[in-house]
Amino acid sequence: MEVFLAQPRGFCAGVVRAIEIVERALEKYGPPVYVRHEIVHNKYVVESLKNKGAIFVEDLSEVPPSSVTVFSAHGVARTVEEEAAERGLAVLNATCPLVTKVHNQGKRYMSKGRALILIGHDGHPEVEGTMGQVPGPVTLVQSVNDVAALTLPHDTPVAYITQTTLSVDDTKDIIAALHARFTDIQGPDIRDICYATQNRQSAVRDLSKLVDVILVVGAANSSNSNRLREIGSEAGVASYLIADGSELDPGWLKDVRAVGITAGASAPEVLVDDVIDALRRIGPVTVSVLPGREENIEFRLPAELAAG
To answer: For residues 170 and 179, is the Cβ–Cβ distance under 8 A?
Structure first.
């Protein structure tokens, strides 16, 4: 059986930075370090950090006063920041810089008097954080139908921003509908879309031309991992989202000669290796990495952790 690995796959720079913030905080301050929400959407990563002394909470009320607290890569609302300040928590902000960029875009558009529309998934922590960062009402749209249902007059000055785990391809139809609906509309440059999301989706499309089955390594609650599986299916290839090798179903591989593997932006390479090991237990495999875009982006750590 031939196994082809998508390139790029797995961790993006924002995830690497978020995990490193927790690890360095544990080294510098000692455990426990409290983390609001899963630092990234991956159980393996979360459990690894728990074993080092991180404690994950969903609400800041669970954090003892003055404790070192990390905000997850998805970002948080201003009310969460204010609550942390009121309780005297020592906050390290692991919000992905590309998410922060979206927050700043939204604030800038709103300061110019534009009605703000956010393209994203209802209930996703990044969406909740973004809507809570902008000082004013934000309208969430998830589909072209949502655009059609908007009640704003056609000549309303509007602007849109997007959830970072959506690619250019994911949002283009909604953006086109917005432009068709409103006469005065602004939005971010296409270059402002999260590079990692777009690159991983493009790599899956390349992968789908070569294989009979695609395995996406990632968590069930990972937006970008689910989208990778959808893209494989849309390309006509049987595609499955699995957390690790233990979830591999040999029945998926009947009469299969070529398997493609990719990983969501929050899935570590060790889990990809685990899936390959599971394939090897079924039969002999050859593994090759497809050519693809090289990612060399690194994001700076918070100043208090950067030294040393």
So the answer is: no
User: CATH assignment of 98-190?
Assistant: 3.40.1010.20
Tell me the whole-structure pTM to 2 decimals. 0.91
Cα distance between residue 47 and residue 37, in whole Å: 13
Residue with tokens 């954090």: 63
Look-up of token digits 């970008």: 224
| Residues acting as catalytic residues | 126
Question: Each residue's pLDDT tens digit in the chain (308 positions)?
Answer: 999 999 999 999 999 999 999 999 999 999 999 999 988 889 999 999 999 999 999 999 999 999 999 999 999 999 999 999 999 999 999 999 999 999 999 999 999 999 999 999 999 999 999 999 999 999 999 999 999 999 999 999 999 999 998 888 889 999 999 999 999 999 998 777 788 999 999 999 999 999 999 999 999 989 899 999 999 999 999 999 999 999 999 999 999 999 999 999 999 999 999 999 999 999 999 999 999 998 998 999 999 898 65
Select 2-11+195-289's CATH number: 3.40.1010.20, 3.40.50.150, 1.10.10.10, 3.30.420.10. Answer: 3.40.1010.20
